[in-house]
Amino acid sequence: MRVATVALPVAADSTFDYWVPAGLAVGVGAIVRVRLARRSLMGVVVAAGDTAAVDSDKLQPIAEVVADAPALSADRIELARFVAAYYQEPLGLVLAQMVPPQARGRTTASARLLRAAQALSAEPAALDGANAGVHLNPDQQRAFEAIAAARGTYAPFLLQGVTGSGKTEVYLAAAAHLLAAGGQALVLVPEINLTPQLEGRIAQAFPGRRMVTLHSRLAPGARARNWRAAATGEAELVLGTRLAVFAPLPRLALVIVDEEHDPSYKQQEGVRYHGRDVAIWRARQRAVPIVLGSATPALETLLHAQRAHYGWLKLPDRAAGAARLPEIRCVPSRDPGLREGIGAPLIAALGARLARREQSLVFINRRGFAPALLCSACGWQAGCARCSARLVVHRDAGELRCHHCGHAERLPVACPSCGNVDLLPLGQGTQRLERTLAECFPAARIARIDRDSMRRRGAFEAVRDGVHAGDVDILVGTQMLAKGHDFPRLTLVGVLGADNALYSADFRATERLAALLFQVTGRAGRADLPGEVIVQTDFPAHPLYRALAAHDYDGFAATLLAERRAAGLPPFAHLALLLAEAPTRAAVDAFLAAASEAGRDLVRVHTMAVEIFPPVAASLSRRAGLERGQVLAQATERSALHRFLPQWRRAILARNARSVRWALDVDPLGFA
C-alpha cells in the first residue's frame, strides 16, 4: 500500500498518514484534499512511502490532487520545516502560507504555465545596461558593486543610508544586474501603501519586464495570478509585504528587504514569524545575496554589521545634488500660545510655508479625535467593556471606538455615571488636529492620512498623487507617512505627541520611537528646497532628541546597545513568550502556572541554561472579552533556548487545556 504523510492546517500536531488510491500520482510537495474527521481540508504531502505509523485499516484515502495548484518545491518544504521548527509552529499551518491562494476549478492551466516557465528559464531576456538606466553617485556605485560581486553566493548586506540617500537606486541597479543573468528578484516592503510608489519606480526602470505584487489587499483572483506568475518564472520581479517571503521563485537571485527595521515584518497572529529573518534564511538556503535597507537599522541588524557578520554599505549623504538634511528644532509642548495642542512656533512655520506655496506635514501617531473622553464632574472615563482600554473619540462618526477589539458605540450626550453633560475629549488625535489646522488656516488644502481615512480602495494613491500635483498644502498623518514617501515640495515637518512613547514600559519603545522620528523628519527637504523639522517636547535634553537634532542615529543606537547589554536584553539575549487567553482570569492563571512549572522542571532535569520568569498579566490584560497573560523564557544563547522550546511545547500540549488559547512567540518584538 502506498502511503503519504500530509501536513494539514490545524493548530496541534498537523501531519497525518493517508493511503494513496491506485492511479493517483502523489509525490512530495503535492497539494491534496483529504478528510480529517468531518472536515475536508487542503494539505501538502511531506513524505511518501510504503508504511504508516498506524494500522492500515485506520487510514483514509487521499480524495484528490488539486489540479490547478503546482506542487511545492523541495526548497520551499525545507523552508517551511525551518519556520515550523524555529518559531515552534505546526508544519501544516506554515505550509498553508505557501499554498497558492484558494485554488479554484480543476484545470490544467498550471501545467501550461510551468511549461512556459521552463522556456523562460532556458532563455533569459537580455537587459541593456547593468544599472537599468539608474545614475549612481560614488557611494551608491560602491554599494552596487559590492552586491553585484556577491552574485551566486549567500551574502547579507546592511545598506544604511540617511533618508533621501537613494537606497532605491541601489536596489534597482542590483536587481538589473542579476535579472540580466536570468534571475528573479524578491523585494519586500513593510506596508501595503508603499507598494504602488515602488511599483512605479520599478516599472519605469525595467520596461518590458514582468513584475507582480503580493499582499493581503489584492483580490483573490489577482493574488492567485501573481502567485502563479512568480511560480512559473514569468514574473521576474516580485514586490510584496511579509507574506511574499514564501512566494515560489524558481530562479531567485536577489532578496531585498526595504525598511528592514519596521515592526510590520513581524506577524503577530496565526503563524508568528518575522519576514526579515525568514528572508535571510531563505537567501542562505538559495545561496543568493540579500540587502537589508534602512536609515535606522534594527539593533539586531546593526550589531551583525558591527561584528562583520553582514557587509556594511553606507550612503551618508542625500542623493539629490542640492538636498541637505533638515534643520531640527525642539520647542516646548506646553507653550502658553497653544491652539488645541499646536504651539505658536509650528503655527508660524506652517503659515510661512503656505505663503511660499510649499508643503507641510504634521505628524501625530494617534488616530481618531481624542484618545479619551472624561466627565469633568465625577471623573468617569469611557472604557471598553470588552478590553482593559479606553475608548477613543471619533467625532466625525459620532462614535467611541476601541482600537483593540473594534467595539463601537454612540458618543454619549451625558455622563452615564452622574448625568453631567460637560464631557471633555482629552488629548490629540489626527481628526482633532485636522480640524484645528482648518480653523487656523481656512484657505489651506488639508489631507489626513490614517487608517480611518484610507480604508477605501485607492484612497491613499489619490492623496499621494494630489500631493505630487500640488493640490495639498498640509498633510496630517500617522506613521503611514513616516517612511518611503518622497514629496519634493514638502519642506516642513511638525511632530506632536512623541513624548508619549518615552513613558512606555516596553524595552523596545525608545528604539521604535527613534526609528519613527528619524524616518518622519526625513520627509522634509528631500529636493532643492531646504527643510525644517519642529518637534514639540517636554524633554529637549533627552538623548533621543539630541541625537535627532544632530542626525546621529548610530550614536544613539550605540547608547541603546550599551543599555541592552547591561540589562541582558535582545540582541544580547534571546526570548520566547508563552501567551495565553481565556474567558476567565482563573483559567489563564492556572494554565500559565502549570506551564511555567513544567518549564522549570525541564530546565532543572536537563540542566538547560534557560530562565523561566513567573506568570504575569499582559499589559492589555483583557482584550475582546478574553483575559490575557504571559510567561517569559530567556536565554543568553539562542541554541539553549531552541533546545528547550520543543520540549516545553510538547509538555504544554500534553496538558490539553481546551478552555485556553495559547501561542509561543519566539523573538517577540515586545511584551503583550
The CATH superfamily of the largest domain is identified as P-loop containing nucleotide triphosphate hydrolases
Number of helices: 17
Task: Identify the strand order in the major beta sheet.
Answer: 8-9-7-10-11-6-12
CATH architecture annotation of the largest domain: 3-Layer(aba) Sandwich
The overall pLDDT average reads 90
What is the beta-strand fraction?
15-25%
CATH class of the largest domain: Alpha Beta
Helix fraction by DSSP (H/I, runs of at least 4): 25-40%
What is the gyration radius calculated from CA atoms? 27 Å
Class by alpha and beta content: alpha/beta
CATH topology of the largest domain, by name, is Rossmann fold
Could you tell me how far the N terminus lies from the C terminus, measured between alpha carbons in angstroms? 49 Å
**Main pleated-sheet profile:** 7 strands, parallel
Number of strands: 28
Low-confidence stretches: 104-130
The structural domain count equals 4
Query: Rough shape?
Result: globular
